[in-house]
Amino acid sequence: MKISLGIFLCLLLVSVLPAQALADYKYAHNDAEYSVMLPEAPTVVTVSADNGGVPYLENPPKDIALGEIATFRRADAETDESFDVKITFLKADSDFLSKLTEDKMKAALENDFKDINLNNKKFDFSVNADTTLKWATLSGFSIDRYGHPSYAIGHYLTGKQSILVLKVQYSVENKTFADTYKKLADNITYIAP
């Protein structure tokens, strides 16, 4: 049996690289100011005012694509545990971004989790020196629909021309999911426009 050099090298590469290195996917919309490392590519839907509304923005422009919503889900079929990610990227004008306060960002995150009874709720907010980059985080614990303890966290990040809202919920008893979230959180990166 004859194997071509290309197939051989590809098989060699797959066998040498760790599985995690092959699976990582750096998610960032073309106009985004932040990237997020995911285990694999998410499912993406374009957001525009004429296709069902635009979350987070006040008075968004009509008839143009403003961003996208990316979702990712992993589930353990044996335990019914899950890891869910929803990333909302939206272009935003400077007027909206300059008026975005800690209270408004907190209210938006609380609205994202309004259907989840969060216990031990924690909120953090930070801003850079010239107040162009803001980061709000809301987190807490709950019980999922299968009775598993669950961790929920939302990050609301502003850039100079956009926002990124990241919502994650996963079963805390699943070490793989906890490790996946740690890697995701450690790899949220600002990309200067």
Description:
With 193 residues, the chain is of the alpha+beta class. It has a single domain, classed as Protein Transport Mog1p, Chain A. Helices cover 23% and strands 40% of the residues. It contains five helices and ten strands, in the order ααβββββααββββαβ. The strands form two sheets. It has a seven-stranded antiparallel beta sheet, with helices on both faces. A three-stranded antiparallel beta sheet has the order 1-2-10. A hairpin with a 6-residue loop joins strand 1 and strand 2. The longest helix has 12 residues. The N and C termini lie far apart (52 Å). The N terminus is likely disordered.
Broad CATH class = Alpha Beta
Number of domains: 1
**Main β-sheet description:** 7 strands, antiparallel
What's the end-to-end separation, in Å?
52 Å
Structural class: alpha+beta
Q: Quote the average pLDDT.
A: 87
Q: Specify the helix fraction band.
A: 10-25%
Strand order within the widest beta sheet: 3-4-5-9-8-7-6
| CA gyration radius, whole angstroms | 19 Å
β-strand number: 10
